[in-house]
Every structure is written in structure tokens, then in C-alpha cells.
Design brief:
alpha+beta; 6-stranded mixed β-sheet; 4-stranded antiparallel β-sheet
């Protein structure tokens, strides 16, 4: 006998997976947010919307049926929806709940999911007063078309339909810059559409266990986009996608007129107004008409007397009064949209500069390729305060992050920071005491993040990077591992000479083995000046054989005295 789906456990797992996915993608989606208002909160709003849905699903009794859980999730999303995209997703969930909650619904063959996605896309378009292609709406329509296309060309099956919908959604997302000039000029895809693809991928993952494996972060890679600056642009007529990837242009949604769309820095309505509304369904058309005359970005979702209202207006009071005329507005939120960041001190810009001390020419090139300004010092010498300040030099950035990358260079960086602060700059000194910690920090540096968020992420990455090294003793000395003689190979673990040996590779492997004893996903190997390439290759092969779960990256550092610098993250 076929089981009625969605099973309550599957619903909860999908909601949790979607919430977790949005948590990981939140920064990226926030940075993508340039339309309709570049307020950088779409990812956060979608996360909070799904968090409310998750809380409502968790509040259901353990033995609650799937229909009850889906309905609770949809209502939780409606009442907790934030922002334009959050409200649209809430209405889509409501449509999905209506389909899944039908008596006798069988999702096992995938037809109910395809129907639900189609109903969700229709509901999303209906909720928006002036639908615009190249947004979350286009992604929703393409996902529904992809699910239907799969049913027509392949044997029916829930996992296949879910995968087809997720793939079609991603294809439509990639095309959003072609449909919306604001996105094209900014060089980004639509933020709300990106959030929807996260939810579609989560459903596919829950059903199949399939997920995209993340690549290890390399120095210089950035995952948070930095949109280009735009002004007002024109929106041409665009086609509504009809096939699984939005290629069918036979069905064109005509634009009522050519409109100006605000890009970042462009003027627009001053306030975002949101409220929950208890009102009879028959009063909603009149409310829509009144609010449409007051502003734009109007979305009204809900039903059965419970509504969520979102609009951008210049007269916030009038928008609230319209709600009072229709029913009882509550949980009213008003956000000023035209607030500008504080002006930097005279002569300084709003950018950010990272200054790093590099111990060798290869490391200097590596830090520079990642976007850092390298403090120029003779090889083998730590920088002075003057050299740190000279690295900042005439950079107009109002924000400065200093990476000393050596224990003795930390107080030097602190002194340089004090000087920079007197000039009105915002400065942070990261406590990176080794080169590999500096590399770990640069690997997570995102220019698109806020200063505080970037500093926290970089500091956390550096702190979690275990560090080691291999060198050769130049004199007799007492170490933690015993007495060493000139020519002995020394292994350094977390700043202590912990290994004494006679073979460079054997000591390097022992250092890495100790650092991986507490686990690790990425081993960083930095080769020194004149180091035999076989040394790094030997470490890589050992890691591959003994710890296949860990990746290894090798950089040419060119540092003196240390044939290898080692790190584990």
C-alpha cells in the first residue's frame, strides 16, 4: 500500500535542511540583494521566515500527521515572514500545503509535487501587485515547469521530479541578469531567486541524500559577491519561461509600461511598511488598490482572515491607516530605506585594506593575489611600525585589517593600528602569529561583508588553524622533545619543538599526524626557499593515504630557515 506523502518526518527534515541551507547562504544572499531595494537583508529575511516555519512544525504533536505539520509550517511562515522575498516564500508554502493536505494525496509518483510547485508559482505571481521577471517569480515558474517536464518525458517518481525542479530553478537563476537590468549592471543574480534554489536543493537532498560537496577554500577565493554600483535603469518587456529551463519564449508576459527601477543609490520610497492583518478576505482587493496608489513593492499574502502585508511608501501613516480601514493591523514594522552609512573622515574612502606581513616572496605573492597589501621587509626580518604604516600608505580605505603573521610582529601591528586610528581609520589587528594562520584568515576574507563580520570570520578561521613547521637545528639546544644537535631535523607543533629526527619527510609527516589527531579537513603545506618538491609531495601522499577525508593544498612560500610551514584547519 502506498504511503501518504509528505510524511511528517520528511516535512520536518526538509524544513530543517532548508533552514540550515539558508544559514550557510545567508551572507551570500544578503550581498546579492540589489533589487527592489539594495538593503542587504534578503538572506536574513528568508532565514527568519523559515525559522518561524520550523518552530511551528516543531510545535506539532509528535504523532501529528503530515497534513497537520505542513499546514503548521505554512502558517508559521506566514506569521513570521520578513521582507519581500520572505512574504512570497510564505505564500508559496501556503499553496504547497493546500496541495499536500488534500485527502488521499499520494506524492510517491511525483505528480503532487509538480502540482504543488505549479500552484506555488501561481500564488507567488498573484501575491505581487506588479510582477517582475528576473526575480524569485521567474525561478518559481521555472522550477514548476521543470517538474512538469520531467513527468512528461521520464517515468514518474518523486526524487526525479524534485531533482528536475531544483535543476530548472538553478538554470532560471543564472538567467535572471538577462531579464533584469539592475542585476545585469550589478553583475549578480537575483537574491530572492537564490534563496528559493536553496530550498529546492534542500528538498532534493532530503529525498535522495544527494548534496553538492563544498570545495576547500583557497586563498583569494570569495563567496560573497560585491555588486557593482548602479543608478536608475529601464526594465524592458521580458518573457515568462515556459520550459524547464525557461527557454520557451512563446508565452510573453507583457509589461504594462516601461518603468524605472531603483538601483543602489537611486531614490525611491522612503519607508518599508509591514504588518500582520486580521481582515475579511473580501476587503483585501480594496486594500491592495489603496496601497498600490501609495507606493511600490506591494505584496499581500495569506487567506482565511489572516494576512501579511508588505509595501514601500513615502507615507507610512497612510499605509497603516489603509490597514485599519480593512481590519486590525498588528506587529507593525516600519523601516527607513534611505539611510546612508556615515561618511568616512575627510580624504578617506569607504573601502577596506588588508595589510599582511609575508615571510618570503612566494607568500608575499600569495597574500597579494588574495587582495592584501604586503608589508615590504627584507627576507628574514619582521616589519617595523614604519613599514606597516608605509604598507597602508596612501590607500584611501577607511577600514584597515592588519595581519602580523608572526608572534613578535603583533605588538608592532598594534602600534601601527594606534597611529592609524588617530587619523580616523577603523582598524583591527588579527592575532595571527604564524604565516599559515594568516593564510587561513585570508581564505575566508570577503570584501562584500561588513567590517565587523569580516574581522570575526577571519579571526575565527585563524584561531582554528593548527600550525606547525619543519626546520633544521643550527646549534645544540634543549627542546620539549629533548636535546637537539646541529643538523637535527626539528618538528614544530603549535610553537613548540615537539619532534627531533634525521629525515625531513619523516619529521614533517609526524608533525602533520599530530596536528590531524584532533581531526581536520584541510592541510596547508608551504614550501620554503630551496625545498625539494618531493618533500611536499610526500606529505600530500601520506595525507591522501592515511586521512582521505582531508584535502591538501601546497603553496610555494620561499621563506628562509623553514623548508615547510604546515597548517591544519
Amino acid at each position: 500500500m502506498k504511503q501518504q506523502v509528505p510524511d511528517a518526518d520528511i516535512v520536518r527534515r526538509w524544513c530543517r535542511a532548508g533552514l540550515d541551507g539558508l544559514a550557510l547562504a545567508r551572507e551570500e544572499i544578503d550581498a546579492l540583494n540589489v533589487y527592489p531595494v539594495p538593503d542587504g537583508d534578503t538572506g536574513t529575511n528568508l532565514y527568519l521566515t523559515m525559522e518561524s516555519a520550523m518552530a511551528a512544525a516543531d510545535a506539532c504533536a509528535p504523532d501529528a500527521g503530515s497534513g497537520a505539520v505542513v499546514e503548521a509550517m505554512a502558517r508559521g511562515a506566514l506569521l513570521g515572514a520578513r521582507g519581500n522575498s520572505g512574504i512570497i516564500v510564505a505564500q508559496m508554502l501556503r499553496a504547497v500545503a493546500e496541495v499536500f493536505g488534500r485527502p488521499g494525496t499520494i506524492l510517491e509518483d511525483g505528480r503532487a509535487l509538480a502540482d504543488a510547485l505549479n500552484q506555488a508559482a501561481d500564488a507567488a505571481y498573484a501575491a505581487v501587485h506588479e510582477p517582475v521577471e528576473g526575480t524569485i517569480l521567474s525561478v518559481a515558474r521555472a522550477a514548476a515547469a521543470g517538474a512538469q517536464w520531467h513527468l512528461e518525458v521520464e517515468p514518474a517518481g518523486l526524487p526525479g521530479v524534485a531533482l528536475a525542479a531544483a535543476r530548472a530553478g538553478r538554470q532560471a537563476l543564472a538567467k535572471t541578469p538577462e531579464q533584469l537590468a539592475v542585476l545585469r549592471e550589478a553583475g549578480v543574480v537575483d537574491a530572492g531567486g537564490r534563496g528559493l534554489t536553496v530550498l529546492l536543493d534542500a528538498f532534493d537532498t532530503v529525498l535522495t541524500g544527494r548534496r553538492e560537496l563544498p570545495e576547500p577554500r583557497r586563498v583569494g577565493e570569495h563567496h560573497v559577491p560585491v555588486p557593482a554600483t548602479r543608478r536608475v535603469v529601464r526594465l524592458p518587456d521580458v518573457a515568462e519561461p515556459g520550459g524547464p529551463s525557461g527557454d520557451d519564449t512563446s508565452a510573453t508576459r507583457p509589461a504594462s509600461h516601461e518603468r524605472e527601477l531603483p538601483g543602489p543609490g537611486a531614490p525611491g520610497p522612503a519607508y518599508e511598511v509591514m504588518y500582520l492583518l486580521d481582515a475579511p478576505d473580501e476587503r483585501i482587493p480594496g486594500l491592495r488598490e489603496t496601497l498600490a496608489a501609495l507606493g511600490d513593492s506591494l505584496v499581500v499574502v495569506g487567506g482565511d482572515g489572516e494576512w501579511n502585508v508588505h509595501v514601500h511608501v513615502d507615507d507610512a501613516g497612510a499605509a497603516i491607516e489603509a490597514g485599519i480601514e480593512a481590519g486590525r493591523p498588528h506587529r507593525i514594522g516600519i523601516t527607513y530605506l534611505l539611510a546612508l552609512p556615515a561618511d568616512p573622515p575627510a580624504g578617506l574612502g569607504g573601502g577596506r585594506v588588508i595589510v599582511a606581513f609575508a615571510a618570503g616572496p612566494g607568500l608575499a605573492a600569495l597574500f597579494a593575489s588574495a587582495g592584501a597589501v604586503v608589508a615590504s621587509t627584507p627576507v628574514g626580518h619582521r616589519p617595523s611600525t614604519a613599514e606597516m604604516l608605509a604598507a597602508v600608505g596612501d590607500e584611501p580605505a577607511g577600514e584597515v585589517v592588519l595581519l602580523p603573521n608572526e608572534r613578535d610582529a603583533v605588538p608592532v601591528a598594534e602600534a601601527a593600528a594606534a597611529e592609524l586610528r588617530t587619523a580616523g581609520r577603523r582598524v583591527a589587528v588579527l592575532p595571527t602569529i604564524t604565516q599559515v594562520q594568516g593564510l587561513a584568515a585570508m581564505a575566508v576574507h570577503e570584501p562584500g561583508r561588513s567590517f565587523d563580520a569580516d574581522v570575526v570570520a577571519m579571526t575565527t578561521a585563524a584561531a582554528h588553524a593548527r600550525h606547525g613547521a619543519v626546520t633544521v637545528a643550527s646549534r645544540e639546544a634543549v627542546t620539549m622533545a629533548g636535546i637537539c644537535q646541529p643538523g637535527d631535523v626539528l618538528g614544530v607543533v603549535e610553537g613548540d619543538f615537539a619532534v627531533i629526527g634525521s629525515d625531513l619527510l619523516a619529521v614533517a609527516i609526524e608533525v602533520v599526524r599530530r596536528m590531524l589527531s584532533a581531526g581536520g579537513e584541510l592541510v596547508t603545506v608551504v614550501t620554503g626557499a630551496g625545498a625539494d618538491p618531493a618533500l611536499a609531495a610526500g606529505v600530500r601522499e601520506w595525507v591522501r593515504g592515511e586521512h582521505p577525508e582531508a584535502d591538501t593544498v601546497v603553496y610555494e612560500g620561499g621563506q628562509p630557515r623553514y623548508p615547510l610551514l604546515l597548517g591544519v584547519e
